[in-house]
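Review this today:
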Amino acid sequence: MYHLRCQPASAAPIAGCRLPAGRRPPSRRRLPQARRGWKALVAAACGLALISGIVVAMAGFRPAGREELRSQPVAPKPRTTLRPMAKQDVQGLVAGVNFLNQVDNRVELRRGNTCFTLQTTLDAGLQQALVPRLDRRNSRFIGIVAMEPTDGRVLAMAGYDKSNPDGNPCLDSRFPAASIFKIITAAAAVETHDLSPGDMLRFAGDRYTLYKSQINARPPKNANQLSLKDSFAQSVNPVFGRLGANLLGRDVIEAYAEAFGFNREIEFELPLRPSRIELSDGAFELAEVASGYNRTTRISPLHGAAMAAAILNQGRWVEPTIVDWVSNDAGQTIYQSQAVYREQTIERDTAKVLRQLMQATVQSGTAHKEFQKHYGDKVLSRLEIGGKTGSMGDGTGETRYDWFVGYAREPQRRKQLVVAVVVAHEGFIGTRAAAYAVMAMREYFQDPPGLLHTQVPPPQRS
């Protein structure tokens, strides 16, 4: 072994210091490499000691084995159950929501910590065409309802309530039905006594009055005569008064009124009070009800649209709906509306006869003047249109109610629409009910042939 005593780098070797032969003293260039070697060796030793210390410190720790892990209780993963909503649940969900004049057919609602998306059945284009044209200046009330008769989808709900801006006249059952009730009287007479549109009926006096002398079972020899079709089209009160008092009677009128939705609940997502009819055994009182010449028989525009839908739907009653589907904040569809059909209101043949009577009202009757203004219209001219008008004062002279309940259908595309409109005119007669019906029909059927108003599909149920 060789011993070497190193000096500082600047010092010369000590004299007399000899090395064995063949050995050379390390040069100054190799000295730094040697130092680095020793430092690396020391660092490695320190690292090894540190690792050894960690191992020793963890010697007392022993992780749980697989068997021990299996023996520990594991909390079950919560499962979310998607409970579909019923129509009654939707009624609670939309409580306080007013869809009147809604131009966006999608509504966002928050209930508690959950956000719901409601896709309504409203036709945005139809709403946007009607709402700006409401005659608020000359009207106390306006209620317009348009519906697809096959499945009961409400396509338009536009209106105005001067006394209550937050009200919804479309669902208000305060309005006198007036001559709209002649639809029910005609249906009962056709179905129970086999009357046809061409059968001649006699009456005495003026067409638009109703006195006890006009409902006698035997009219005078010089009495007027009109067919059932013309009597309906021109809304002749004595003819329908005599039908009610002398031909139908209380039980028949009541049965057909209830079949057409009076005095019973009509299922709908929004609050809707029943339309009311009051009947007595008196002949003249029955004549008043049958002709609509009273203020006690009351109806809402939505109910009027449902009546027209039953006629256009071959006598089947379909419940109206305004909510197409509902989804939660996870995008899951929790409600999907379906067409709900009730009992057959009238027979198919009766519904066909009523359509003929309603067409006569538009072609030559009380609605002729309004529709004649649009003679040759490229949209309306391709449609089959029918309806019934009604008019009744409020008894004070301040307001006059104006009705149109009818339908339009395009046979080539099998596209259909029913419309019910009520307007309460004040000092001046503004836009009439039939005029609003024309607006709705033209807007709905004006798209090119083959292009139908489509429904928005709901999110996929997961």
